[in-house]
Write a sequence for this structure.
């Protein structure tokens, strides 16, 4: 029996003609360009299986790299599912970083270079890249760097190194932090001069040095080239220039290189991925083959058609027409809620109804969005799995400010706390006054003490007002306390001014404030509020242990790449979130925002909901476009002759027609759910109410 037939029997997947061609083309360069859900990862796995089982290639001779550790794990898992009983030794799937690190280690060993990693677990902690950059920023500006600024700086550095930007070109790289270039230069110098014996290395340096090793150490290069007869890379649209070059060096001179990519899913260009290099494949390998896979196996026709038309607004792309033979499915829902809480409540209500919760994903652009969802889920006792655990929200300056306002209200003599907030409320306190208070130390109410000093006329009443406000705060519920902080003490205005002055992202800061208000709503005391924040942080951290459980997945759009779910909720699709203000001003960023939205949509198999809040005027400008694309032909259910099934019709042995799965017989009915045995799709379980409300079933 031929390989493909055997694989169909053991995995249930019969590859299509293009996929088969991609598997059979083992020798020479191949670029496999493909649409979402077209089976890139499936084909790559089948190809590796083919190399092992049919061509009898040793697993150690295959270099299989992917973009992230999570993607490498997913790929290894899928490979295990397909081939666990067929191959004795698995292929190692690794990230390009871990691969590069192996090269660097042998390179440095040969050159007797000591090195220290300054990312990951670093001891002492001040040697960590983040700490070093914070210090270098302070040295340069005399100020403390904010989290947002630090992120911009780190992104700038990654971009420069991954794109192999030469020093004389640095000023051309955009960064919201104007000191970025100077700090980058100082950072490189600090690493070089740290001590004579040791080289400091960050993760991006691994790539730079690995490439240097391949260029300058012929022995290392030859050894790798000899070892790897076949080189395959998945998600290659996210590889940076230096990463592409490393892979290409190792694959040469045989060039048995299979590059799998979808330029429309390239969403890491902001930190240096280089899809342009990929698109010049033919000029690098004139004899190379390019295969295009556009049949989507994952999603309903509705989703495929809308996503396919949406992505065409981008100009910088390979022309592809994604299509599917899947059923039309159910309409895409686009909803805009007045209030964010209402939106979250709506998502929770529908998630609660789901039996198969691991087929549900809640996706968002920013990690901050996750906090409100986690809060709501925890209140409802719904467990979840988080794809990426980012707890920066709990240490963001807005969160810290609010907690400090509350803390200070308990003891207005705590000048050490006041120091962090005195410039963020409307008492117009001066630096000198704060300095004087700090010298005086903790004690009586700071405002009362200031009243005894020489004050500007306008300060007298302002300080009294501030004292009254702080005296009130600790007797209020957290929600009311935040209103006093925002309005009476003018924190919201101060926040806007601070963002304006320091070039910080004001929308991000307001999002955090709004999320904090949401969390505060269900709490009675300020202590309860602070404890709640701790609980949510710990819940998030614990959520990684729910992997594989029957729980919904929470993820950013970025981290959801490569995944698929029956139901996908894309939340917080608001103006200035996707696309952001910066995206609006830059055509390249705008195209990336479009791709990000596209990646989100194409994660859904059947059910896709696009949700925003703040009313239609606040919704993402992508949503009106999507609404236009939801033409009646793509969204309405195919016409069915029978009458819609009502609750009382849902009885065992009744034959029904489902709009997607066709004719079937109800075989089991429980209080909320029922099981239907379909003629062509086997047994499926449904929520009764959902089927009835949506009119998904008709009587036969
Ligand atoms: N020939 C095929 N026949 C039936 N199903 C297939 C076939 N090829 C792939 N699939 C199914 O299609 C779905 C998508 O496949 P896969 O995840 O490999 O796509 P992908 O191109 O890597 O997707 P993305 O780029 O969106 O992450 C999977 O459920 C897979 O089992």
């Amino acid at each position: 029996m031929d390989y493909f037939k055997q694989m169909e029997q053991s995995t249930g997947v019969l590859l299509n003609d293009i996929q088969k061609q991609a598997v059979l083309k083992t020798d020479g360069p191949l670029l496999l360009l493909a649409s979402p859900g077209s089976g890139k990862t499936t084909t790559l796995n089948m190809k590796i299986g083919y190399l092992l089982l049919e061509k009898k290639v040793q697993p150690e001779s295959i270099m299989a790299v992917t973009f992230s550790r999570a993607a490498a794990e997913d790929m290894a898992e899928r490979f295990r599912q397909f081939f666990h009983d067929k191959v004795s030794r698995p292929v190692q799937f690794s990230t390009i970083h871990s691969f590069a690190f192996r090269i660097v280690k042998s390179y440095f060993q040969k050159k007797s270079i000591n090195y220290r990693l300054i990312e990951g677990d670093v001891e002492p902690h001040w040697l960590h890249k983040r700490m070093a950059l914070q210090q270098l920023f302070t040295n340069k500006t005399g100020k403390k760097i904010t989290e947002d600024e630090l992120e911009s700086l780190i992104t700038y550095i990654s971009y420069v190194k991954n794109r192999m930007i030469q020093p004389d070109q640095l000023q051309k790289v955009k960064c919201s932090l104007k000191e970025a270039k100077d700090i980058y230069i100082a950072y490189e110098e600090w690493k070089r001069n740290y001590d004579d014996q040791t080289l400091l290395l960050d993760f991006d340096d691994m790539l730079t040095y690995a490439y240097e090793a391949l260029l300058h150490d012929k022995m290392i290069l030859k050894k790798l080239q000899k070892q790897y007869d076949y080189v395959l890379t998945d998600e290659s649209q996210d590889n940076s220039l230096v990463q592409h070059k490393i892979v290409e060096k190792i694959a040469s001179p045989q060039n048995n290189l299979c590059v799998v990519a979808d330029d429309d899913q390239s969403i890491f260009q902001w930190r240096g991925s280089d899809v342009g290099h990929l698109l010049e494949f033919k000029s690098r390998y004139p004899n190379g083959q390019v295969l295009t896979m556009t049949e989507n196996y994952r999603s309903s026709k509705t989703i495929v058609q809308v996503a396919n038309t949406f992505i065409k607004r981008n100009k910088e792309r390979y022309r592809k027409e994604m299509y599917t033979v899947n059923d039309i499915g159910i309409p895409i829902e686009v909803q805009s809620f007045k209030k964010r809480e209402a939106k979250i409540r709506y998502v929770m209500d529908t998630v609660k109804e789901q039996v198969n919760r691991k087929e549900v994903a809640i996706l968002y652009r920013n990690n901050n969005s996750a906090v409100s969802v986690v809060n709501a889920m925890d209140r409802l006792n719904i467990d979840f799995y988080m794809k990426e655990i980012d707890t920066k929200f709990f240490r963001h300056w807005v969160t810290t400010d609010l907690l400090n306002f509350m803390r200070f209200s308990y003891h207005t003599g705590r000048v050490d706390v006041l120091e962090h907030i005195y410039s963020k409320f409307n008492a117009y306190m001066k630096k000198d006054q704060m300095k004087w208070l700090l010298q005086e130390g903790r004690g009586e109410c700071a405002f009362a003490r200031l009243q005894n000093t020489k004050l500007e006329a306008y300060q007298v009443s302002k300080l009294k007002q501030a004292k009254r406000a702080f005296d009130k705060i600790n007797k209020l519920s957290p929600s009311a306390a935040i209103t006093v902080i925002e309005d009476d003490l003018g924190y919201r205005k101060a926040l806007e001014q601070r963002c304006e002055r320091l070039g910080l992202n004001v929308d991000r800061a307001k999002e955090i404030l709004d999320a904090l208000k949401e969390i505060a709503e269900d709490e009675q005391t300020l202590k309860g509020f602070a404890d709640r924040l701790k609980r949510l942080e710990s819940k998030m951290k614990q959520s990684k242990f729910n992997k594989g459980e029957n729980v919904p997945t929470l993820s950013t759009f970025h981290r959801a790449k490569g995944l698929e779910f029956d139901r996908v909720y894309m939340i917080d699709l608001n103006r200035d979130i996707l696309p952001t203000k910066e995206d609006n001003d830059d055509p390249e960023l705008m195209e990336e925002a479009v791709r990000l939205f596209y990646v989100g949509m194409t994660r859904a198999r059947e059910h896709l909901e696009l949700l925003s809040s703040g009313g239609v005027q606040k919704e993402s400008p992508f949503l009106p476009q999507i609404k236009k694309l939801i033409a009646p032909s793509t969204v309405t259910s195919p016409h069915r002759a029978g009458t819609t099934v009502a609750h009382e019709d849902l009885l065992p042995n009744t034959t029904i027609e489902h709009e997607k799965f066709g004719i079937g017989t109800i075989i089991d009915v429980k209080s909320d759910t029922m099981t239907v045995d379909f003629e062509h799709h086997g047994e499926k379980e449904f929520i009764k109410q959902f089927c009835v409300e949506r009119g998904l079933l008709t009587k036969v």
In short: Residues 253 and 587 are 38 Å apart (CA to CA). Residues 633-641 have pLDDT under 50 and may be disordered. The first helix runs from residue 3 to 11.
